[in-house]
Amino acid sequence: MPELADDLRQELARLKTPGFAIDLDSGVLRAAEQPSEDCLRADPLRIMRVLRCTATYPIAIEGSLALALHAQRGRLAMVPPTAVRDQLVPLLGGACVLDVLLEYGDVLAIWVPEIGVAQGFDQRTPWHVYDVWEHTARALALAGSIDPLVRLALLFHDLGKPAAFSQDATGQGHYFGHPRLGGQIATRRMQALRFAPDCTAQVAELVALHLEALPPEQAERWLFRLGADQLRRLLEVKHADVLAHSPATQAARLAELAAFEEALAAAG
Q: Which domains does the chain have, with CATH numbers?
């Protein structure tokens, strides 16, 4: 834990984040010299900095600070969008991101309101065992890539589902058109956060295509359409998405991806 604490201190110093301390024995991050809510009110960007650090390092957030993060989340709306963006990207790439996403989705929803709708949204399909937001969080945590475009695409990939929801006579849920809606959400929210236009367009494209079938015989066509880098990203998005589905449905879809990748390698 001392090595971890030293790394975290350096991170907090680099981020110019006074007011926090790491308990060496327990690995708990807390407000250092003032009540937690006062600490966050003094600089609301600290909310994102705390979440970023907790997503990066295997540390816990002290109870009163955790409560303050929820209570003060509305103040994030006062923070410049570029500052939020610059914390969000490494947060999504953190090795400990799952717990942060599951616990603090309401905080992130200040800048991406669709997250709030996705929390607790029952998917009602045999392909899913988690609600929309937990599926999203688990897909992000299971992603093998730390490519920020992949991580951002996974953040947005299913956020169009609540708006696209319909239910058939058996009670099963359907989400026709949700990839297109998700791409529109990604564009709107990334523009608000001042992402570069090319980054926004690439992420929106990945979201819009994440359910597209990839038959092995079409490997060259997809390579020509997207280029090698963007096609790799699409495969990584699809792979993480499948891993966060119901275990009973994963094998066939993973086999389809493997067959496409084999054909792609042969074409390359």
A: 1-111 (1.10.3090.10), 125-268 (no CATH)
